[in-house]
Specification:
This protein has one domain. Helix content is 43%, strand content 19%. The chain contains 14 helices and eight strands. The longest helix has 21 residues. It starts with a strand and ends in a 6-residue tail after the last helix.
Length: 309
């Protein structure tokens, strides 16, 4: 019998749209499909701080909506370690910073400077280039939380570098898992293969995102291990094929105009500086030779004299 394919592709308009979706209650049908019983606890509900860094699902949802204050402190601490490299990579531009403005410059804010605000129109006057970052936020269960922080910090640093060059940056969170199994069709066993994908825009080109929200979206384990889990749990059809381990992570087929950051595998993020190097290499792989040479020149301080992109 031919294989039956299930492709569950979910595209959201914003992070708030995603949060509204995962806030919907779980039906008994879905709970049975995923946990085997209407009264069993789901993975998104388990009390496992080491795995999720939140007390429960409601705690994760609250941090997602209101911001991750503790994470910002850790995010800022790691950002300060790469701050000299981010500032050193920046080329001269005409942006004027002041205590008041429409958007924050994250490195300046982390450095303690009172003049870290600017008006977005000054940064992008006459700009036509837009970089679309497709950021795969999945990570194996054995990846430590601090490595997720370092990865998020590295991407935030790269975004700041690009925007200080006059490039508008868009960020789309991406997650995908696959699974397989069999189903009964008129007494016969039919192979089933499943692909579940999520696309969540979290920053539009030219849009500012509050640092505590950015820290949560890019670096918190619960984005995957509670919120994304809940989205999968809301689809009963997926349960029989993904419930054991919630699926195996897969990479995206990025569009030609996207810069893709693949799913995390653990290596390359032991320190903020290591994370920055890893992020730069993923970025550089998708540029032409001239662009890579400029990136190597701008980031010479973090790369060292013998390394190139």
């Amino acid at each position: 019998m031919k294989t039956h394919y299930i492709h569950d592709k979910v595209e959201f308009d914003s992070f708030e749209d995603f949060l509204d979706a995962v806030s919907e209650p779980i039906s008994d049908t879905c709970r049975i499909a995923w946990a085997g019983d209407a009264f069993e606890e789901l993975s998104s509900e388990e009390s496992d701080w080491a795995f999720t860094h939140t007390d429960n699902f409601d705690h994760a949802l609250k941090l997602a909506r209101e911001g991750w204050a503790e994470g910002v402190a850790e995010f800022d601490e790691s950002f300060r370690e790469i701050l000299p490299f981010v500032q050193g990579a920046a080329r001269v531009n005409s942006i004027e910073y002041a205590p008041a403005g429409s958007h924050p410059n994250i490195p300046l804010m982390c450095s303690g400077s009172p003049a870290f605000m600017y008006n977005r129109g000054e940064a992008f006057a006459g700009t036509t280039r837009i970089v679309r970052l497709l950021y795969n936020f999945s990570a194996p269960s054995n990846v430590a939380g601090y490595k997720l922080i370092n990865r998020g910090v590295a991407v935030a640093g790269l975004v700041d570098y690009l925007e200080n060059q006059g490039t508008a940056v868009e960020i789309i969170l991406f997650h995908a898992v696959e699974g397989e199994g069999h189903r009964d069709v008129n007494g016969e066993s039919q192979p089933v293969k499943v692909l579940h994908e999520e696309f969540i825009p979290v920053k539009r080109a030219g849009e500012a995102v509050e640092p505590d929200r950015l820290a949560f979206m890019l670096a918190h384990p619960s984005v995957n291990r509670r919120l994304s889990f809940r989205l999968r749990e809301q689809c009963a059809e997926l349960g029989p094929y993904l419930r054991w381990g919630y699926g195996s992570g897969v990479d995206a087929k990025a569009e030609p105009d996207q810069i893709y950051f693949p799913r995390m595998r653990g290596a390359g993020y032991s320190t903020p500086k290591d994370g920055l190097k890893t992020a730069l290499r993923f970025f550089a792989e998708q540029l032409d030779e001239t662009q890579r040479a400029r990136l190597t020149e701008d980031w010479a301080a973090v790369l060292g004299e013998t390394e190139t992109l």
